[in-house]
Design a protein that fits this description.
Oligomer: heterodimer
Shape of chain A: globular
Strand content of chain A: 5-15%
Order of helices and strands of chain A: HHEEHHHHHHHEEHHHHHEEEEEHHHEEH
Helix content of chain A: 40-55%
Shape of chain B: globular
Number of helices of chain B: 4
Mean pLDDT of chain B: 85
Structural class of chain B: mainly beta
Largest interface: A-B, 55 and 52 residues
Radius of gyration of chain A: 28 Å
Number of domains of chain B: 2
Strand order of the largest sheet of chain A: 7-8-9
Low-confidence stretches of chain B: 1-5, 7-19, 442-472
Mean pLDDT of chain A: 81
Number of strands of chain B: 21
Structural class of chain A: mainly alpha
Chain lengths: 529, 493
């Protein structure tokens, strides 16, 4: 589970980084630093055309206009530096606009800023500030991408203006969005053609920045100074790798669920219950569609043949994400040991009250990222509610056949649900699927004896698993706790055993109903709202 | 506390031996200061005390219970800007004191359940022609049960349960002279508070402050007239702070709040009492006080007035928040206030058989005003993002009102026993607030929080409301706000 948690964090980083008195006489704050940028973005061409000699200093850092500049920025001369000051100031305005949720202003600025950084980059292609600015502005400028905006508008209409309240509404939505091309394909193409190249480009630039080792960029709001270094660049780069991994996953899978271009079959699932009554004829027909999608030779979640190489590379992307983020925190930790090196940093790592984050916190994060890396690179020991087992998540990405390798033995004629029968390895029938749907058998309690998985290791994901281990895991997962919801917000959640829990406010810990009973921690709730 | 009770019991026992001058008092007080829509402040409690003088020894002890409640609610159109701040506690109080007089010297010692301890030594010439005293007091200041709660449950920090704890050390020197019925006395005191947070975890508040002050007074204690004139001054530099303290492998403590306050207070008082031959008493008093609070500009990093990111508990989210969404606030400015109060009182001496009934009535008029100018600087940083902006909030106002008091006391024929009852009510007659032009970015609608008047009775600039127009509003305040009650029973023999 930890690898997914870390993956989620990485993705969040990517998303967020893209958006994102002795005598008590009164005194006033003084403007200590004046802005060096009095020109506008329209003057960029003129500034860049000015002939100027390079500062030619080999020192790592030189003070220019009140800010310390790295050699990577000063080597291209004063005109480039002056131009960058102008663009940087606008870039700050750009982030200010997004921080203030002024999206119109943000979008307008992002186009200007991206273009301006590009001009500087054309003149000074190895300039770190220009590369960094362009990488960041490119990501932010995705807000101006027409395809993405159209997609956002469509979903915004359906989910907010129209309001999806039923399965039929959902089917209406995907049918409408799939008039020319399936809605999944539209989204995948947008990610692949519009977002992925920008992310790839940003990764290249950010890798160059991080590879400098000690590159730092100082910005100022006219008074205070902010310095960004590998502590931030590494996290941003890690976030970009995680984003790339997420895009690869989303664009490699076949997610088509239409029936010859129609989605109306989904409506037939309405009212379906599991383990209570026999499905109606319509429901059975819909279930046949699902079985065909995810069963033997089913295409759902299989990997497109032209994407299989990228798919198998996902673990490496996750590995890169975690490695870069860990390196960023290691950089923070090393800075905390050098006096004065964090004076203008976004956050200061250190002991005591004159710091933002404790060194022990950073060490913990580094340790957890290390565990995440272990989990990414091979089999990793996991404990779930007392059961310890090995998980090799990398194996998941070696499979390109979707759900097929995870299926149990069964036989099915492909048209009539009543012909779906679970079998043993020899092909002898053990149970019918209908028997689990109509309540004759209960899932998962009655599953172990009659549902036999072809490969209980699931392609090596659980390398030590045998049949019984699979069912033990399913049993553990049955009562998994949902500790990210507050009990007060449960009104909209359907009542089921899985959702019932007890919250011990003293230690802010959540227990599932089963755990609550087992540990005797307090009043256990079975029936949720 | 148990020891204090034992000492108190011992004092009563000694008092009953009959060789001592003994006085005891049982008292209940209640002060219901504010009960407004957004602000509540009240304190009530009862105590029993006894003092005993036997020869050169004096012994005093008291026990009691006190309950206080303070609350403030901040309402905003936006849920994530609405919050409650409250604190309340029931305290068991106790105090013992011991004094010994020698020919020219005296020593005092006292212990209270705060806990606090104080010792003093006295020097005096015969008849107190000249006298001097030096004291040293140390104690623990604690305010627990402080709870801040956001209306927005999903807030990163929805609730803050905090404790304030600090130790105080004060030294007092006084000297005076008594000549016939005249007494002149001067006092100087200074001290400091020291943070006491070693065993506090979670949100811990404390302060590191120093203060000094003076008190001069003249008293005339004649046969039928008494006069008291006094002036007191207090200067203090207060540095309040809040830490997020966590104890894992190593102690992690991060400062998320810091508020330096400079405080100057002046207080002039004059009291005159005339006792008529029939025992009636006439009193007149006047009080004038000023208070100046300055919040100095503080530019140092880690000394922001509020840095919410540092208030988060240790987590990956906290760490990332500094790179993505870092906000901090610095408040600086001045709040000045002054109050003038003048009043008259009369106490009748009525004989009911051999008993004495002493009803009394007082009526004061007061005027209080304030001006406030506060600046709030908002600092925003994040990846590729640094901005600051400052908004200014100004307000001034005044209140005119009356303070009416009624009470009575019943004394036994020998005056050895008495019971008394008294109450006082603040009656606001006229409020006026005037808000200055706010300066600063329009996207900063949240002014700093300072004591404010009830919205219902706030008047616009240039308008003044008559008593009749506002009486309905005012009447709702009576008995709910500014009401004090005192009941006493005592003995002396």
């Amino acid at each position: 589970m930890k690898i997914f948690w870390l993956f989620g964090i990485s993705l969040a980083i990517a998303t967020l980084s893209a958006c994102s008195s002795s005598s008590h006489s009164p005194s006033q704050p003084e403007e200590t630093l004046k802005s060096s940028a009095s020109a506008s973005l329209d003057d960029i061409d003129n500034i860049l055309d000015k002939s100027s000699a390079s500062t030619g200093k080999d020192d790592n850092r030189t003070e220019v206009n009140g800010l310390m500049r790295s050699a990577c920025d000063t080597k291209d001369g004063e005109s480039v530096l002056e131009a960058l000051d102008v663009v940087n100031e606008k870039a700050i305005d750009l982030f200010e606009a997004f921080a203030d949720k002024d999206f119109d202003k943000g979008k307008a600025l992002s186009a200007e800023v991206k273009s301006a950084y590009k001009k500087v980059l054309n003149k000074a292609p190895k300039n770190c500030n220009a590369q960094l600015g362009y990488a960041v502005a490119s990501i932010v400028d995705l807000a101006n991408n027409k395809t993405l905006n159209d997609l956002y508008s469509d979903y915004d209409f359906w989910f907010n203006d129209y309001g999806i309240e039923s399965l039929e509404d959902f089917t209406d939505m995907i049918s409408t969005l799939s008039k020319n091309k399936s809605f999944t394909k539209t989204a995948q193409e947008a990610l692949e053609k519009e977002v992925a190249p920008t992310v790839d480009s940003a990764i290249t630039y950010m890798q160059y920045i991080v590879a400098q080792g000690d590159y730092a960029l100082q910005l100022s709001d006219g008074e205070e100074i902010l310095e960004m270094d590998n502590s931030e660049f590494g996290i941003a780069l890690g976030g970009l790798f995680a984003t790339k991994a997420a895009i690869t996953i989303a664009t490699s899978m076949n997610l088509e669920i239409d029936d010859n271009g129609s989605y109306s079959w989904i409506n037939n699932l309405d009212g379906l219950t599991v383990g209570e009554e026999e499905p109606t004829a319509k429901q059975k027909a819909a279930l046949v569609k699902i079985v065909n999608l995810i069963g033997a030779n089913g295409t759902f979640t299989s990997i497109y043949s032209n994407k299989q190489k990228e798919w198998k590379n996902v673990p490496n992307l996750v590995d890169s994400a975690l490695t870069e983020i860990r390196a960023a925190f290691q950089y923070s930790l090393s800075e905390s040991m050098k006096k004065g090196s964090q004076d203008y940093d976004l956050y200061v790592v250190g002991k005591g009250t004159d710091a933002d984050i404790s060194t022990s916190d950073v060490k913990d994060i580094i340790e957890n990222l290390g565990k995440g890396l272990e989990a990414t690179r091979g089999a990793y020991e996991v404990e779930l509610k007392g059961k310890t087992f090995m998980v090799n998540a990398r194996k998941y990405f070696e499979n390109v056949k979707g759900t097929e390798p995870f299926l149990p033995y069964y036989k099915f004629d492909g048209s009539d649900l009543t012909t779906f029968k679970f079998t043993n390895k020899a092909g002898t029938e053990t149970a019918t699927l209908i028997s689990f749907l109509d309540g004759t058998r209960s899932f998962p309690d009655d599953g172990e004896d009659v549902i036999i998985f072809k490969d209980p290791t699931f392609g090596g994901i659980f390398p030590d698993f045998e049949q019984k281990d699979v069912w033990e895991l399913i049993d553990k997962l049955k009562g998994i706790r949902f500790d990210f919801w507050d009990r007060d917000d449960y009104s909209s959640v359907a009542a089921s055993e899985s959702y019932c829990f007890y919250r011990d406010e003293n230690v802010n810990t959540f227990y599932s109903y089963d755990e609550c009973v087992e540990y005797g921690v307090g009043e256990c709730y079975y029936d949720c709202y | 506390m148990r020891n204090l009770t034992k000492i108190f019991s011992a004092a009563l026992l000694v008092a009953n031996t009959g060789f001592a001058l003994n006085s005891g008092l049982v008292q209940c007080d209640g002060l219901f200061l504010l009960d407004w829509k957004n602000t509540k402040a009240s304190i009530k409690g009862c105590s029993a005390s006894d003092s005993l003088q036997a020869g050169d020894w004096a012994l005093g002890a008291s026990v009691g219970k006190t309950r206080y409640h303070l609350g403030y609610r901040r309402d905003s159109d936006r849920k994530n800007y609405s919050w409650n701040l409250k604190t309340g506690e029931t305290l068991t109080t106790g105090h013992t004191s011991l004094s010994r007089d020698f020919k020219f010297f005296g020593i005092d010692a006292n212990v209270s359940a705060l806990p606090a301890i104080g010792v003093s030594s006295r020097f005096h010439l015969p008849d107190s022609l000249l006298y001097a005293k030096a004291s040293i007091n140390a104690g623990l200041l604690e305010l627990s049960g402080i709870r801040w709660h956001s209306d927005w449950e999903e807030d990163y920090v929805p609730t803050i349960d905090a404790t304030y704890q600090s130790t105080i050390l004060a030294k007092i020197f006084s000297a005076g002279t008594r000549l016939l019925s005249h007494r002149l006395q001067g006092e100087f005191f200074y001290g400091e508070t020291t943070p006491d947070i070693e065993n506090q975890w979670g949100y811990a508040f404390s302060d590191s402050s120093d203060f000094w002050g003076t008190d001069f007074r003249y008293l005339y204690d004649g046969t039928s007239n008494k006069v008291q004139l006094s002036y007191a001054y207090l200067y203090s530099d207060i540095r309040l702070f809040g830490l997020m303290r966590e104890n894992s492998d190593e102690v992690s403590e991060k400062r998320f709040a810091y508020l330096p306050l400079g405080l100057d207070a002046n207080l002039f008082q004059a009291n005159v009492q005339h006792k008529f031959q029939d025992g009636d008493r006439f009193t007149a008093r006047a009080v004038y006080g000023t208070l100046e609070i300055n919040i100095p500009w503080e530019s140092r990093r880690f000394y922001e007035t509020l840095a919410p990111n540092r208030a988060l508990k240790s987590s990956t989210l906290k760490t990332l928040s500094f790179s993505v969404f870092q906000r901090s606030f610095r408040v600086y400015g001045d709040i000045d206030g002054k109050v003038f109060d003048a009043g008259l009182g009369y106490q009748w001496n009525l004989n009911v058989g051999r008993w004495h009934l002493l009803p009394k009535a007082t009526l004061d008029g007061f005027y209080a005003s304030y001006t406030a100018k506060l600046n709030m600087r908002k600092e925003k940083t994040g990846f590729f993002h640094i901005k600051h902006s400052t908004s200014t909030w100004q307000q001034e106002g005044y209140v005119v009102g009356a303070l009416a008091g009624l009470g009575t006391e019943l004394q036994s024929p020998s005056k050895a026993f008495f019971v008394s009852f008294g109450m006082e009510q603040i009656i606001p007659l006229h409020f006026h607030t005037e808000k200055g032009p706010d300066k600063g970015p329009a996207e900063e609608p949240e002014p700093p929080d300072i004591p404010n008047t009830d919205e219902d009775i706030t008047t616009e600039k240039g308008k003044s409301s008559s008593l009749a127009e506002k009486w309905d509003s005012f009447s709702s305040l009576v008995f709910r706000n500014g009401f004090a009650l005192q009941i006493q029973a005592g003995f002396r023999f």
